[in-house]
Write a structure and sequence with these properties.
single chain, elongated, mainly alpha
């Protein structure tokens, strides 16, 4: 993502873990928004 790319370019990163959000959170956002993007 742009955020991770920026962090790696601008900061001295010694350890980084990037994870996906839980599927329940994603489904909840879709239903609250009423649209699928």
């Amino acid at each position: 993502t742009r955020t991770v790319s920026r962090m790696l370019a601008e900061l001295e990163v010694s350890d980084l873990t990037v994870t996906d959000p839980p599927v329940e959170d994603v489904i909840g956002r879709v239903f609250r928004a009423g649209v699928v993007s």
